[in-house]
Design brief:
Aldo/ket_reductase_CS; two-stranded antiparallel ribbon; 334 residues; alpha/beta; 11 strands; 7-stranded parallel sheet
Amino acid sequence: MAPSHCDTNNQSNAVPVAMPAAVVRLGKPTPRIGFGTASATLGQAEGRAGVTQAVLHALDAGYRHFDTASSYNTEAAVGDAVAQAVRAGKIASRDDLYITTKLWIADAHPGRVLPALQKSLWNLRMEYVDMYLIHFPVSMWPPAVEGAIMVVKDDLVEMDMKGVWEEMEECHRRGLARAIGVSNFTCKKLEYLLSFTKIPPAANQVEVHPYCRQNKLRAYCRDKGIQLCAYSPLGGKGAPWANNSVMDSPILEQIAHEKGKTVAQRMQENLDIFGWELTDDDRRRISALPESRGTYNFFVHESGPYKTAEEFWDGEIVAGQSTYQIAASLDSTN
């Protein structure tokens, strides 16, 4: 699971941490630390029960923001965990949580957005999500097997962003998504999106960590009132989209040691990031680290709308480590 490892004990004796939240332009405030449910095998190695247990452990530790996606194959497991937590009295209701899910590229077409969200809600067994994101700024022709999670690069096509966003707005108007936003959008793509939106995006979820600092994008989102959310803050080591620089960095290891922290902390420790800060020298050393992406060229292809990583990322941090190809269809039954 990203970003944290699971505790080995079924029950947690830790006192849940009070979680600061970020105000977004739509819906309720977003807890500043979330528990991601993407894994290297997209849920297959862990199985539905394994993901459910991981989410329950996270709830015990104090997490209240859970991030999933139709392509992660974990929506149903998140729904199972939430239902079990309510029955056990761990939380009063689903409303105590912040749930994010995402629109997969095969459904990023006019006419498919609302049905895709309705399917996600059915998987989650929820009436609404707190945040619904366009997963990537690209589309793909729907697969022959409905629900298959596979990237066929020959089938990548330019997204009808205006048509897709109009349906995202409809999802919000119907109350199915309390907030709507995007993921993996650059400044240029956000600028185009904002040129026609009636409801601007509340958030942009992107790769952010010490080796992918996204300073330009962070400043742009701040100026436009878009909450920037970080995924893979530890670089996602072990995942197909990993940027291993974070976990392998001697500089970060040294800074962590000086602060009595670890570069990669366990589930409970990940919540213990408040009440201390980096020194100016720490920030200087981090700002000098070379930038690169883990999520790099997944959707780059000679026949697609983006021929190079430079085009896909509009010149924003175009160095990358991962060349992972999703080559096999995954079970869509969650």
